[in-house]
Amino acid sequence: MGLTTIRLQALLLATACLPFWMPGAQAQKAPAAKARAAKTSTFALPYEKFVLDNGLEVILHEDHSDPIVAFATIVHVGSNREKPGKTGFAHFFEHMSFNDSENAPVGANRKLIEEWGGQRNGGTWNDGTQYYEVVPKDAFDKIMWIDSDRLGYMIKTVTAEALAREIQVVKNEKRQNYDNVPYGFTNEILRRNLYPADHPYSWTVIGSLPDLQAATLADVQEFYRQYYGPNNATLVIAGDINIADTKAKVQRWFGEIKKGPAVKPLPPRPAGLTQVKSLYYEDNFARLPQLQLVFPTIQQYHRDTYALEILAQLLAGNRSAPLYQILVDEKKLAPGVSSYQLSSELAGEFVLGVRANPNVSLQQVHAAIQQGFQRFETQGFSDTELARIRAKVETDLYSGVESVLSKALQMGRDNEFAGDPAHLTKAAKLTQAVTRADVLRVYNQYLKNKPYVMTSVVPKGQQNLVVEGAQLAPIQQEQVVAGVQNEAVGQGAEAQFEKTVTKNDRSEPAFLKTPLFTMPAVWNASLTNGLKVYGIDNREIPLVTFDVTIPGGHYLDPVGKAGVAALMAQMLAQGTARKTPAQLEEAIDLLGATISVNSTTEEIRVQARCLARNFGPTLALVQEMLLQPRWDAAEFDRLKRALATNLKGQEANPGAVANLNLIRLLYGPNHILGTPASGTLESTAAITLDDLKAYYNTAVSPSGAAFHLVGALDRQQVEAALQPLATQWAAKPVAMPSYAIPAQTLAGNVYFIDVPDAKQSMLYAGRLGLAGQDPEVTKATFANAVLGGGSSGRLTQLLRIEKGYTYGAFSSVQELKERAPFVVSTSVRANVTGASLQLIRQLLTDYGPTFKEADVEIAKSKILKGNTLAYESQAAKLGILRRMSKFGKSPKFLEEDQAKLLQMTLADFKSTIGSYMPEKELVYVVVGDKATQFEEVKKFANGKVVLLAPNGTPVK
């Protein structure tokens, strides 16, 4: 539940839970023999497809690279099927589907899957709803049971109490992700003005609070009967499966589900905008002005969408793009500009967005965009620009379907909406086939002199920054009230119903044989300059992911100038001594590669991803960036302006404010980690280019550094390619500073930061824990699994499932060389702030004493089985290598950790919880509406609350 953009088909999702199917079957053959997807010379998505008698379309894809299986169910119903007055219902029904069903135990959908080592979630967008799981293969039959029960046998279990609770959860999601964040109402304004009132896209996927509050049991039942028939869905099963066995099990579990009524397809319906509309609103949370322009375009899978996606890159996708040149380089109005094509089932949208620098007039931004269009029309674009975009297609193709889950979701959506599970292979060809004439044609057809909707969003009190002539957009905002009012909800009694009679037994199946995680083979070496090398030869996709990790990062920032390392890292990506920034960017793009340079708490990291065949030239660019920095003064000025803009913007993020202040309180003002790695407005103001050079000269060395690589290359190939780096990067000693951890005297203190009219309260609590080298860190991580590790943890089960106070609640044990925090965090609706704090305190106080043998088994199952899918991707495997080099872990450390976990007893868990998670030692930070919630927080704190400003200074 929370909206994210899926870029492969540009689907706008409202994700459903935290983070985050053969005698009777009608066989249908896909084009080419045996229903196999057509192969291309470089890429294919092989599958088998068949259709059950009840209309369910089933796609099977074999991938035996890991002992895991992914399930994706795509239901062809989204917010475009809703009625005015019932907005948000498709997404709300998705939430309800995760509750109970006739044959699975209460809470199975939300709790058991994670306890089996799996992951599950869902999402709703304009056109559809998806449910998915990825699990170790021993839970294969169990997911068949749960998924089929959800699709065919859940409606009888819906109760009035469950409905009331889920209404509160969805309202919490809306507050947390839309009402209580900067620019959260922008999409609502755009939709209302881009489409006519009777258009299915004229309202948001999340819907309105009054509509959500008005949802009834009858609404839920009607929606299920109308749209949740198996004949309106696609099921994809991908991973370590046997095709024949899986077909039989799909028929056994899904074949008896009753067919639903036919759902008539909706025809494409463009927005039909006839004039420019300019709207504005003053945002209570925004700290920066933001301008968006949205042009109506064409629906998904239309050939023009591929040209529009390329047009978006040509207009704003790199340093050579006219909008970037004018807005960022020349006029210095903003740190960046974005452009993309959003394609949906009925219509499309071309979106331009600029979050400007503080106090910049959006009238100037709008004029600069028009100037950028004019430059595009007069100067055009080069063949090299087209080649850059095409070069990325193959890399993006493999990256987008690297995991079995990503393949299952992509194939399911493409089957349901395009009728072709392997449409992605066609999309890649269609993108490659886009010509110069195609790009110019879609520009003229959809953008040039065409009407659009424009929104000017400015900080409260800065109406002077809006575009001239903009009209005030009416916004329906919830009023913050003190007290819980009538919104207190609970689990409620289980539904009483007569089970549906089925031919097949629908009781819980047993686990299959348990797969145990085994570490991939790791090779390591050491170069002559001291650089350590770690590699994993992984041939699942023809890509490599690699990095150079240099110790230091923020930890080596000069005292009083936090942010130097972060700026220095960014400078390394702004060209080289031999290449301008634009030339470097072009060289990277032409390889279809990505290269980034970042500073973390304790490292500088240069990371890259490319096709295996392009490893050599990509590594050469990394070496050039690392050893031949450009130190361009103009780029430094640009980065510093962008940093100031971003830091200003963070002031509006309640979660960032809460975390920043908690960390400052734990580490104190004299420890470098008491200041964020990006710095503050104060610490970065005096940073100069000479500071960056000094950092580079003293801290960037192969001494203690490591090179990590995962991908389709062997050790000999990697070591040969690294020889120039070994000979040209000279070693030098790097002195690491030592900071004293302050005495932890703030335990039990409560701090409050006021955000007037906040609809949610951010609650953070934490204490300093252990350093990463401490062997007890592993035990603390294990002990946290049952408390706050995902949606099955006690925190979410209590605050979301039982109470309906939040969208999610979590806890984490962090891992650094320095002592790192243990943190509990959540965002709750404003009027249950005090009640939520009390519940968190009680839960943490009781965690150790109430930890039972059953919890020991749950923790072991979650971790041991979860490891089988936790390290599937190249990025995850790269994380294994990083932990090995940073903490001196053995090549088998994860297996050793598993053995340690298996040996842990109930007494071990209780001891670990008592030592490292004691509630009485936590420091609490609350970010919320002081006018309505301060008194409740004072009750929790026995009257002792310290008021802080967002930057951490005390407020008198």
From TrEMBL:
Keyword Nucleotide-binding found: no
- Residue span, Peptidase M16 N-terminal domain: 58-173, 540-663
Q: Which residues form the Peptidase M16 C-terminal domain?
A: 215-392, 687-862
Matches recorded under InterPro entries = Metalloenz_LuxS/M16, MPP/UQCRC_Complex, Pept_M16_N, Peptidase_M16_C
Q: Cite a single GO MF annotation.
A: peptidase activity
Q: Name one GO biological process term.
A: proteolysis
Pfam families according to UniProt: Peptidase_M16, Peptidase_M16_C
Stretch forming the signal peptide? 1-27
The record ties this protein, via Gene3D superfamilies, to: Metalloenzyme, LuxS/M16 peptidase-like (3.30.830.10)
- Hydrolase among the record's keywords? yes
Arranged from A to Z, the UniProt key words for this protein are: Hydrolase, Protease, Signal
The record's family statement is: Belongs to the peptidase M16 family.
- The protein's name is Zinc protease
The organism of origin for this protein: Hymenobacter arizonensis
What lineage does the source organism belong to? Answer: Bacteria, Pseudomonadati, Bacteroidota, Cytophagia, Cytophagales
